[in-house]
């Protein structure tokens, strides 16, 4: 459990270092804090549990286009560099009753998210 958490923190720190400041209110640290309870489910080590609460909270917090693009970039980075089940990650919003305007995938073009 510690190794996946370390990877998430490393990815978060890298994303925060390269993100332009002041454009989006939601950074990767915030994304990780909302979705931390999803890690066991997405890595096949646990049930869905309380993950949907975080998914719904993050969706509610991402109100502007820059916020949604920032969240998309963080999710894309995590999905591409972290050992998550991409099918579970892509299906998570629908499973939690949330609609997002993009697919959670390493190939998503976040600049097109509105």
UniProtKB/TrEMBL annotation:
Function of the molecule: Plant non-specific lipid-transfer proteins transfer phospholipids as well as galactolipids across membranes. May play a role in wax or cutin deposition in the cell walls of expanding epidermal cells and certain secretory tissues.
Superkingdom of source: Eukaryota
Source lineage: Eukaryota, Viridiplantae, Streptophyta, Embryophyta, Tracheophyta
Keywords tagged on the record: Lipid-binding, Signal, Transport
Chain ranges of the Bifunctional inhibitor/plant lipid transfer protein/seed storage helical domain: 28-110
Source species: Rehmannia glutinosa (Chinese foxglove)
Protein name: Non-specific lipid-transfer protein
Endpoints of the signal sequence: 1-24
Record PROSITE patterns: PLANT_LTP
Family: Belongs to the plant LTP family.
A Pfam family annotated for this UniProt entry: Tryp_alpha_amyl
InterPro entries with a match to the protein in the record: Bifun_inhib/LTP/seed_sf, Bifunc_inhib/LTP/seed_store, Plant_nsLTP
SUPFAM superfamilies in the record: Bifunctional inhibitor/lipid-transfer protein/seed storage 2S albumin (SSF47699)
């Amino acid at each position: 459990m510690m190794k996946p958490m370390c990877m998430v923190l490393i990815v978060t720190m890298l994303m925060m270092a390269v993100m332009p400041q002041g454009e989006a209110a939601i950074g990767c640290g915030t994304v990780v804090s909302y979705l931390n309870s999803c890690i066991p489910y997405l890595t096949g080590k646990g049930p869905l549990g309380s993950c949907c609460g975080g998914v719904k909270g993050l969706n509610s917090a991402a109100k502007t286009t820059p916020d949604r693009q920032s969240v998309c970039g963080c999710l894309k980075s995590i999905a591409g560099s972290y050992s998550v089940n991409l099918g579970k990650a892509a299906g998570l919003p629908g499973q939690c009753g949330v609609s997002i305007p993009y697919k959670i995938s390493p190939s998503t073009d976040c600049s097109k998210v509105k």
